[in-house]
Structures are given as structure tokens and as C-alpha cells.
Amino acid sequence: MAGQLGGQPIYILREGAQRSRGREAQNNNIMAARAVANAVRTTLGPKGMDKMLVDSMGDIVITNDGAQILKEMDIEHPAAKMLVEVAKTQDDEVGDGTTTAAILAGELLKKAEDLLNQNVHPTIIAAGYRMASDKAKEILSGLVRKVSEDDEELLLKIASTAITGKGAEGARDKLAKLSVAAVLSVVEVTNGKKTVDRDDIKLETKVGASVEDSELIEGMVVNKGRVHDNMPKKVENAKILLLNTQVELSKTEMDAEINITSPDQLQLFLDQEEKMLKDKVNLIVASGANVLFCQKGIDDMAQHFLAKAGIFSIRRFLKSDMEKMARATSGTIVNNIKEISESDLGFAGLVEERKVGGEATTFVTKCKNPKAVSVVLRGGTEHVVKSVETAFEDATRVVGVVIEDGELLAGGGSPEVELALRLKEYAATLKGREQLAVNAFAEALEIVPRTLAENAGLDPIDKLVELRSQHEQGIKTAGLNVMTGEVVDMWEEGVLEPLRVKTQALNSATEAATMILRIDDVIASTRSAGPPGGMPPGGMPDMDMDF
């Protein structure tokens, strides 16, 4: 990029920098974003296929979770990366609907390209899309039904919908029950508002056995065993000390040198060290604790004393696990051994070490009122366990969102068909060119039912016609049952999803599409070349304007 000033070229960009502008830049960006959307399109719905992703190290991931696929794909194009962000935001906010959000953004851009070819200005398209998105959210609020956390049957249906198509369908009912039970265990009410912190649900995955052997523990599961074999394997009515300091000799702040001139002095020194450790253990014993979870190290000698005292001990405990353990056992994390009091101790009816999948694992169960729980997920192979974990995480997120919001929609493509019809009616009331964009937005929404039909091997045109016909007759919850190929009432089928899944997908897809549309100049700078015009190597390196 250069300008002329008195016949002298002025260089603004580095040599080698690439620039595309106008329609070329827009077409490039739209093409890249659509390519990403098409990459995940075949994974949508219960009959969606999986992707196998192999990284540079040869590690394999098999998944049909849109966010995970886009995260694992090594995407270079800047506009394509925006679609990855859409899926990531959707995953962070609601945990489900990631593929829907990505393909919706891709389809909005495809429809926008048709309008650009008709010379509709990008800002008009963007304005129309935003109007359509706002109107869509208004229409959705009229389709909502309320749900309470006491309606466990409805919550199970929501969890089942989230798990369907995630490669863990064989154990869908089991996983749905586990996810609903886990979420209901950690619901908290603050100022009359229900909140679910998913960090309070600890997941432990173990290869071996089958998915059906997965279980919910009303307490904590720790992937560690006792530090000493002489410690008891099982402690009933456990009083648990959570310690955030080492049971070792503390090092001095400054370097110190000790001169020992006789064997007696050495023995005295060693005896003193031993006494100091014994004093620390005595303080733990005096507190009444019979189980110790230590975040830092436990000295070998201290392990011996703890074993003699019959205290079940674990060391190098993760900070996050320590916080969950405090919530599960109603204990307090202690930072100073000298400050321990009996009121700091947590309680569990049973602490025991078991072998699970060949590994020593500690189970802390029968807690009085656990505010944190654990789920042990099993599966025959590493990849099965991974897919079960993904399905379970999505289900817990979705159930959590429903309990927080209390608002539900029918699934199976029914909200999209209803929105498409109502938005076309709304477009007819508009006078400006935005009408074209709102209409395009309505047509783009139909990509969801169309993709569901395609992935199930059904004729998408026939199914769309049938869906539209039922919605025009006023059956607002008519959706596609991809198992039978029939258009049925999704409420009766039990295919349900949270309102937030749809509103978030609409929001993020619209924002990404409008942002990509408004870009008309792409300047890609390079770092390799120096400034043209024979600038000496050491001279004025900062004069380049790097875009």
C-alpha cells in the first residue's frame, strides 16, 4: 500500500503485506465462515455423525459436539475464527446448541451474500438482521412454558434431549437421571433466585466396566489413595481435617549453617526434628480428626505417626478439590496447624479407599448436607468415557439453566419453523430495504429443521413443507421426529430445551454474521520483510505503520 507525494512513493504497509477490499474481502470472509459452518453441519441432531480429529501428536478425539470440533480444528482464517468464538460463547453460556449457533451464523451469511449480489448495502442487511433477531426473541417469549425444579419428569426429558445424538445414547436414561440428581443436589437459593454452580459437581472418569455402572456420590470422590499402607482403609463417622499447610519441617527463611561436632549432637538434632513432627501430628490428633486431607506434603516420619494414630491421610490435594470437599463435608480449610479447633472439622458418615479401574480411589460419602457432589463416569474405552463425559456435561449445564430460568421450549426444529413463519409476516409490515434482510433471516432459520431432516436421511423439502403446513394451522410445537420421520408435537414427544439455548444461539449467530458483513477491507501484515526503499538496518525501525 503506497501513496504518492511529489513523485515520491510513501510506504505505509510492510513489504509483503496482503490487502483485499470491497466485495472481494466480503466474499472471502463469508466463504471461510460458511466452510466452518458446513464442517459441523452433519453433526446436528440425534442422527448426526461424529468427527474424528487427530492432532499433531497423534492424539485422537471422536466427538459430534460443535464447540469441541471447532476448538480442536486448527483454523487459520480470521473470519472463520469468529465462528469458533460463536460456538465457544454458546458452550460457555448454556453448554448446548453449539452446532445450531454455528450453522445459523453460516446460513445468515449465505443469505446475506445473495442480498449483496442484489446491491443491498451491508449496513442495511446488518440492521435488518438485528431487527429480526429482536423480533425473534419477542416471538420466542410467547412460545415459552414454565418449569419448576420439582417437576423431575420434565427435567429428565430436558437432560435426555441434550444427551441425544452425543454418542452416549445407549445409556441415555442412566445419564439423564445422574445429571438431574447431581444438579438438584447443588441448587442454591440466594435472594429468592436459584443458582446452580457446576463447579460443585466433580467429575471423575474411569475406564473399565460399562456406562451403566456410572454412579452419583452424595459427597466426594478423590482420585488418590492413602499415603501409608498401615492407615485404615475405611473410617466410619469421619471427622475430616482440611489442611492447607504441609505436615513437614518448615524451612528457615534465611540460609543457616549448623555445626555438629559429635555423634551425640547429631542424634539430638535428629531427635528434635522427630519431636517437632510428632508435635504437629499430636495437634492433629488432639483436634479429634480421624481423616486428614492435606493440600501440601506429608513427611515420611509424619506419615508413620499418623498411621500409628489411625488417621486416614491423603497429601497433595488439589486446591479446587479441597474447596469442593469443604462444601461437601461442611468443614473449614485450616491454614495453620496450631489453630485447629473441633468446629473446623468436616463430617462424613464414611471415608473409604476402593480400587476403581485398577486405581486407588477415595470415596467420602454419607455427608449430612452436601453442597458439592461427585459423579463417577465409566466406559469401556477412553473414547467412550470421553463421549459420555461430554454428554453428561451438556446435560448438567442444560438442566442447570432450566432450573435457574424456569423457561422451556419445544425442540426438534419447531421453534425455528414458527419463527420463520412469524418473521416473514413481520417483514411484510416493513417499508424499507430492511424487509429483504428480515425475510432472509427468516429463511436462514429453516436451516435447522432442514439439516435435521438431511442428517436423518429424510427429504428436507417434503419435511419442511409438512412442518410449515402444521405451523400455519396453529400447531406451534410441531417438530420433526428424526427417528420415525414423522412431524409430531414435540411437547408430547418430550423433546425439550431451555429458552436460553435458543436466545443465545440467535444472539451470537446474528452478532457474528453482522460483524463479518461489515468488514470491507482485510489487511494482513507480515513480519518477515523490512521496510522498502533501502532503509539502513539500524535506522528508524519504528517508522513503519503496521496495520
Describe the structure.
The protein has helices at 22-41, 66-72, 78-93, 98-117, 122-141, 152-163, 172-185, 263-286, 300-308, 319-329, 382-405, 414-427, 434-445, 447-455, 460-472, 490-493, 499-517; strands at 2-5, 8-11, 18-21, 51-54, 60-63, 145-146, 187-190, 193-196, 201-207, 215-217, 220-222, 234-243, 291-294, 312-314, 333-334, 346-356, 359-365, 373-379, 407-410, 478-481, 486-489, 496-498, 521-524. The chain has 547 residues and is α+β, with helices and mostly antiparallel strands. It folds into three domains: 21-145 and 410-523, GROEL, domain 1, CATH 1.10.560.10; 157-218 and 372-405, TCP-1-like chaperonin intermediate domain (GROEL, domain 2, 2-Layer Sandwich), CATH 3.30.260.10; 219-253 and 262-369, GroEL (3-Layer(bba) Sandwich). Strands 11, 12, 13, 14, 15, 16 and 17 form a seven-stranded mixed β-sheet that branches. The chain has a three-stranded antiparallel β-sheet with strand order 6-19-22. The protein has a three-stranded mixed β-sheet with strand order 9-18-10. Strand 4 and strand 5 (60-63) form a beta hairpin. The termini are close together. Mean pLDDT is 84; it is low at 529-547.
